Hints:
homoheptamer; 53% helix; alpha+beta; 7 helices; 289 residues
Amino acid sequence: MPWQDKLGKVLTFEALFALGLGVLSKLLMVLMVIIMARVILHFGYLFSGRVLKPREDKGYLAEGRVETLRGLVDSILRYLVYFVAAVTILDTLGVGVTSVLAGAGIVGLAVGFGAQNLVKDVITGFFIIFENQYTVGEYISIAGVSGIVQEIGLRVTKVKAFAGDLYIIPNGNISQVTNYSRGNMRALIDITIAHEEDIDKALAVLEETSRHLADQVPEIVEGPNVLGAVDLSEYGVVLRVIAQAQPMHQWGVERRLRKAYKEAFAAAGIEAPYPRRVVLLKESKTPNS
Amino acid sequence: MPWQDKLGKVLTFEALFALGLGVLSKLLMVLMVIIMARVILHFGYLFSGRVLKPREDKGYLAEGRVETLRGLVDSILRYLVYFVAAVTILDTLGVGVTSVLAGAGIVGLAVGFGAQNLVKDVITGFFIIFENQYTVGEYISIAGVSGIVQEIGLRVTKVKAFAGDLYIIPNGNISQVTNYSRGNMRALIDITIAHEEDIDKALAVLEETSRHLADQVPEIVEGPNVLGAVDLSEYGVVLRVIAQAQPMHQWGVERRLRKAYKEAFAAAGIEAPYPRRVVLLKESKTPNS
Amino acid sequence: MPWQDKLGKVLTFEALFALGLGVLSKLLMVLMVIIMARVILHFGYLFSGRVLKPREDKGYLAEGRVETLRGLVDSILRYLVYFVAAVTILDTLGVGVTSVLAGAGIVGLAVGFGAQNLVKDVITGFFIIFENQYTVGEYISIAGVSGIVQEIGLRVTKVKAFAGDLYIIPNGNISQVTNYSRGNMRALIDITIAHEEDIDKALAVLEETSRHLADQVPEIVEGPNVLGAVDLSEYGVVLRVIAQAQPMHQWGVERRLRKAYKEAFAAAGIEAPYPRRVVLLKESKTPNS
Amino acid sequence: MPWQDKLGKVLTFEALFALGLGVLSKLLMVLMVIIMARVILHFGYLFSGRVLKPREDKGYLAEGRVETLRGLVDSILRYLVYFVAAVTILDTLGVGVTSVLAGAGIVGLAVGFGAQNLVKDVITGFFIIFENQYTVGEYISIAGVSGIVQEIGLRVTKVKAFAGDLYIIPNGNISQVTNYSRGNMRALIDITIAHEEDIDKALAVLEETSRHLADQVPEIVEGPNVLGAVDLSEYGVVLRVIAQAQPMHQWGVERRLRKAYKEAFAAAGIEAPYPRRVVLLKESKTPNS
Amino acid sequence: MPWQDKLGKVLTFEALFALGLGVLSKLLMVLMVIIMARVILHFGYLFSGRVLKPREDKGYLAEGRVETLRGLVDSILRYLVYFVAAVTILDTLGVGVTSVLAGAGIVGLAVGFGAQNLVKDVITGFFIIFENQYTVGEYISIAGVSGIVQEIGLRVTKVKAFAGDLYIIPNGNISQVTNYSRGNMRALIDITIAHEEDIDKALAVLEETSRHLADQVPEIVEGPNVLGAVDLSEYGVVLRVIAQAQPMHQWGVERRLRKAYKEAFAAAGIEAPYPRRVVLLKESKTPNS
Amino acid sequence: MPWQDKLGKVLTFEALFALGLGVLSKLLMVLMVIIMARVILHFGYLFSGRVLKPREDKGYLAEGRVETLRGLVDSILRYLVYFVAAVTILDTLGVGVTSVLAGAGIVGLAVGFGAQNLVKDVITGFFIIFENQYTVGEYISIAGVSGIVQEIGLRVTKVKAFAGDLYIIPNGNISQVTNYSRGNMRALIDITIAHEEDIDKALAVLEETSRHLADQVPEIVEGPNVLGAVDLSEYGVVLRVIAQAQPMHQWGVERRLRKAYKEAFAAAGIEAPYPRRVVLLKESKTPNS
Amino acid sequence: MPWQDKLGKVLTFEALFALGLGVLSKLLMVLMVIIMARVILHFGYLFSGRVLKPREDKGYLAEGRVETLRGLVDSILRYLVYFVAAVTILDTLGVGVTSVLAGAGIVGLAVGFGAQNLVKDVITGFFIIFENQYTVGEYISIAGVSGIVQEIGLRVTKVKAFAGDLYIIPNGNISQVTNYSRGNMRALIDITIAHEEDIDKALAVLEETSRHLADQVPEIVEGPNVLGAVDLSEYGVVLRVIAQAQPMHQWGVERRLRKAYKEAFAAAGIEAPYPRRVVLLKESKTPNS
């Protein structure tokens, strides 16, 4: 019967004195835990600062991103130490953490599942920033959305599409990233000519026009190359030309090339590729048709 | 044999006295727990008030949203403290929380899984309000639904589509948000001309018309730019013009531009782009066709 | 060796007497648990009645729905109290709840997962009724099904589609609700005219007809507005008119407007928009085609 | 060293006697557990019989379905009581249920997950029968399959499609049920007329034909209503007529109406809606086309 | 300090003797566990044999399937008993099952999740065989695959498609089964006639042809019924005939009926349903088109 | 205060001696565990060798596959025994496995979930090899990929498609297997004839050609059977011929048959099935069309 | 009352001395744990070095990949040993790891689920490198993306598509790999000829042209084989030619072959395959059409 022992003790003087000492010793322990937590935190901050700096010197991590990451690491450290300290203090005071937490099981399950998206967002966000997958101002495609990056956070990335829509995308939704601003982009033009046209003549026209364009258009990095006949479609022969353009100029280059080839073909008398039909007029064999 | 000890004690006077004292001490402990809970709650409210106010001063969080968030934080705090207090009291009274909860395991599993959507709704709702992803009156697209935001709650968002339908969307369903009311929107017009038309002439007509429109239409923020030939389709050359319009006026601007270009082309004698067919009439080689 | 101690005690008189007292004390405890459970239940009912009534006074919750919700809250309370009481009694009688439940683990896992849908149904059902997302007689769209609500329950919603099918939908399947009976609905008519037609003339005809219709059709809440040319399609120019109609009358209004515009165009000599083809007859250049 | 104590005791006479008594007492306990289980089962059966009967009197639950449900409830009860009794006996005999079950953890996880479908089937099956969602002979659509219900079980439902296929569908696969046999079904006929036709004349023909049909076709519950022009398609004006038919007769009614309207239009000289093309013959401007 | 006690004991003679006795007693216990396991297994086999036989007598379960099921039940029983015996023995020998299993937790989680498909396969396989959902030689459709069943096992079903492919399908992949060999199958023929044709005449031709076919084709179980006009398509009126055929002969019956109707229509001078176009030749209003 | 006891003991001579003996006894236990593990492993290898050999004799399992499976079984056994031994040793040395593992819980959860794919791969791989679902060189279709099996491993299967791509497919991705190399494959040819053609004549031509082909083409296992009219399409009557060919020769047979039928039809004067249109030229009724 | 005992001891001299010794002994234990961890790590590194080297000698694992894998194995080892050491130290110092971790349960659940993607990435990355599924510079298709591998890491793979986009793909997203650079690739050309053409003549032209091409094009590994008629389409007979080309040259070879066949057909007078229509002009039977 623990309460009887306790009761018996309470009524004697020594017990009262011992109780006072016990309360005191508990408070001292709480104090010690708090001091230790602060000391550990202090050294933790120093350490995270040391670990994240050298890489900055090598130009591997930009100033701003190092700040973001160190902030994240520091606050994870802080919450971790605070949490361990709090549990230790509660334990010391006899609140019965385990029993409370067992009681919180059902709710905890729901919260744990509900919060996993949040954690996933931050983890993915950390890697996007750490691995420099994209930076503000680049043209990217993530989670089925294409546009210019406006803002990168640990939880969400904001992307502005060409149509003006602002997309707010939780980082956890981002699985694979397509970055259109790292290296040259390809411009590709497909032109159809009728089946009756002379393919060699058409290719010659394209080659010559391409030579002129390579000089005139500065955004072309690698001159337009005439690939040849890539398809025999229903309506004619499809010819393809590709070129390498500076990033974000590929569409302009494509429009420029398209117009030039079109006009060159018109000048050379190569027919516009309207759909053709061969029509066979006949009298039906059945009496009433 | 605990019940025998208990029994033996019950029959002596001291034991009865001790029992009385024990019941009293338990009641005192319950009272103390209740008082402590109220004190902790009081300070918790003060703290949440202090944390959420300064940001309001910086204009970062609007009055209404701060109220919503503080209400949420306060009630989470309240339920948390009540819950810990209740478990501690039950423990003191010897009800055996763990054993009850172990018994509740199966049901708890079902409830925990069933309730995770609710938790997810509130967590997502919290971030939507806190990060100001959209506000009432903005035109947004969430969870496959587009419309004007009517109401933002912690659990659901109500959106009124243009067709008049009222969508009630649990916040947990919202993963990425598209906001059409933050910055200018693009108006885009594609016009097809026949392959035989002179591209340069058509572009000149578009350029001139665009210059007039930039002055006449006040909703255009950035004058209509003629991009050029964006496609060589089956039926002709596709020309594109884009402009930047004020948010929510992009459709009106598009209609206006479309009509103007159409009429300018008609005036310039550039043919309407009906589908064309080249028909080759022939006699079939097979005897009966 | 507990059974030896037990055995030794059983053979003495005091032990027998003690055993009798022990059984008695256990039965008393069971009785006490039962009485306490009933008392707690009684106060719980009173409380749920007090919490759910005031809101009814404010017209926020209709009579019927308050009944449904209170029934739900009361039965959850009842099962909870009964369950805690039963476990406490079993514990007192020494049945070993934890050990039984550990044994039930595998089955429990299966049942817990299998039953989570049931829990999800009731939770979602609770919020549908509590938040008044839809009521009997409204035209809604849920879980890919559109129709008139016939019955709302805590587990299922019954919807009658226009084609007469009765849909029985578990509430857990409902994630987002579209309600077509809260506010005006839009009527939208698209009419195509040939590219050769005069757009201004066509718009004038539409405007005039709309003015007449605004007066004649009482279901139109906001007069038909002629928006202009919304598309340049392959076959002509697409003109759009929209109007706001009373809920559930939008289809009737659309039919009425459609017929009126069609007849007005016919009267004004604006051509019916059959698909057009420009046919270029030619002799093929290749010898045998 | 427990085995040393045990060993020392085994070698003395008293210990042997005590051991015999211990074994006896254990066997008595096992017997008592068995007797109690049978008694509890007996009362459980009585109770389930009482609970499920009254509803039958109200005509709410048909005889057969009450049998099925009571069988289910009784066997769940039986397995539950047997299971608790078995675990208690094993515990008494000292087999160490928890340790065995901990050992069975991995397999148990796999079995638990694997078996959850089975549990889900039975739970869903219970509600289908209890809520009378469909009965044998009704025409329903579940889990993407439409047909006549042949058999409803707790685990599977058998549906015979019109094409003769027998579908065997686990009840857990059924989330929403569409029942086509509860109330009248709609018959809907869409007829296209050419854009040049007089809409009013066509509507008059439809109205008159409908009046005749309402009398002649007994399966029509609510006379065919001519709605008007529901679409302006590429090829003409689409007119719609709807009617309410007895369940399962809607297709027959549709065929009957369709033929009648078609013949009425032919008699009234309203043209058959073949696709129309406006063909503009022209000479191409480019030299070689 | 348990090792000190142990050490002190080891050095005395009595302790050594006691140790020997302890080892002996442990071995005896292991032996007893093994004997008990065999006895339990023996009775388990007898029982499973008794339970599964009576049903066979009623012709409900075929010989082969009873064998398969009994084999499954027996091996589950065997592994279960062996497992419980092994854990009990290890426990007796003091290996510390719980501690090992705790250590195996991570791997166990992975294995448990990985193996759940295997368990699901066997559970589904059990029900397919027990409920006789299909047997070897029947034409079925499962998991998106149609063909003749070649082999049914507890883990996989092998299906041979008409194209000759052998599908090996884990039973866990099978959720709903379509069996085409249980009852008559429907043959359905849709024939389109031109809008100008006389529907009544066409129906009369179909009726008469059907009467002849009902006599000539023995695979037709229920004579071909002419349903009427099921659709008014772009190109004509669609007429439908359906018949009931013996299972697996429906395709042959369809081919036979199709040819007969086609020839009857040709004989009756009803036109072949080539797509029709109404062509309106016109001069374009715009100057250059 | 365990450390005080320990401390007091440390300072006496006997305690030091006892400590030395304790360390020694622990090392002996570790040694014993290691020896036992090796002995158990040895017998385990013998056993797995015995179990897997007999089946090889029956020709059921090929040499190579038995090697693969035995390697798998042996390494699972090895890791299992090593693991149990390691945990037992750590336990003996007092490292506190449970406490370490509790600490590893979070990471363990992540690893356990992350590794389940690996386990699933190996389990599926085991069954593919054990059940001989496909072997190197067969033409199969798994996980949406078709090609010749190049290599079967426990974790991945490598498949070489006809286009030359090498697919590396984790076995866990494979749910159902289609094997095209077990038994004859079907060759199927559909030929369309115009609606005006005589079906009987066309069928006679097909029959006769088929008879010749059955003799000439050795890869045909079961002579081409003319099925008849399988569809009445927009453009004509579709006739079908099927044949059984040796596996992997079905495409060659199809090409051969196709060419033969095509030429036979040409010789018999049966018209090539170009799409047909019935064109109705007319004057439009509206004034300006 | 543990604190009273502690208190009593604190006030005596011996207790103080004992306390000092206790602290000392704890520090010694911590030191010992650290030393042991370092020793274990040292041997672990040696071992991982020995295990991974021999394979390198056999040319099975390239230098760079062995480095990557050894780095991974070493850091896993390091974190594992550090982790076990840290928990043991905390345990020694009495921090109560279990209680802290129980407290971390909810957060841990969320983190564990959130981090499983990370673990999956690394596991998949390990196997990609270890099994040499692809290397930098190869043309592959993974996770719906095709391109040249730029970089393989343990967490992500970077792929550069032909269009210039840089794809950053977490390895966990990669389930099946298609490698286009291991062995020859197929070039496939389909050419359609009109139904009236002589198939044999067309095949002869293809055969002859193929013989010339086999000599002229060095990238062709296995001469172009004329397969024959692979389809009878609406517009003609489809002939197919396939060839084996060196990897990455298949597209160039296809273009080359396509042009050659096209020109050979033109030279041989085989008609270009424009879509054909048989047009049946007729007078409609209905009065007004």
